[in-house]
Task: inverse folding
């Protein structure tokens, strides 16, 4: 079986079941961001004068693994520099990304003299520290641990 055969098998499997064969890392990152940092995100967005309805809509999208077009994850280590990481798959992991606005912030990170953000930031809502959320690795570890336990219980029930 070559790559194209495998892609066809996955496509047909997904079509019959009306589901994706696996969840993307991006989708997992949005869910984790909302679960771990949703409250702080709401506070920052309110300080930035976003309407509560919009904030709730964005959070609901994240809970489903999607996000509003105004926001995007920025890779802290550029994708083209993935060899700098210990393991290549780490490039898309949550710890190597931060959520930010597409305009103007995400674009400024990519210009030659772009802004170098603190690697511990998980949300960059602006250059003022009030609009930034710092990572809490312990909170993320607890989320991943509880998520893993949920998956085990779900697997046990489906047997």
Result:
């Amino acid at each position: 079986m070559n790559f194209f055969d495998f892609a066809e098998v996955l496509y047909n499997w997904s079509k019959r079941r009306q589901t994706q064969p696996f969840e993307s890392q991006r989708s997992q990152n949005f869910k984790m961001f909302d679960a771990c940092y949703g409250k702080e995100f709401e506070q920052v967005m309110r300080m930035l004068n976003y309407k509560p309805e919009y904030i709730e809509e964005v959070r609901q999208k994240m809970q489903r693994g999607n996000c509003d077009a105004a926001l995007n994850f920025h890779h802290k280590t550029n994708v083209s520099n993935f060899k700098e990481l210990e393991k290549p798959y780490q490039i898309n992991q949550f710890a190597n990304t931060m959520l930010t606005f597409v305009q103007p912030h995400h674009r400024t990170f990519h210009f030659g003299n772009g802004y170098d953000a603190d690697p511990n930031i998980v949300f960059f809502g602006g250059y003022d520290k009030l609009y930034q959320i710092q990572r809490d690795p312990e909170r993320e570890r607890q989320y991943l641990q509880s998520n893993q336990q949920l998956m085990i219980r779900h697997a046990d029930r489906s047997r």
Remarks:
- The chain has a mean pLDDT of 85.
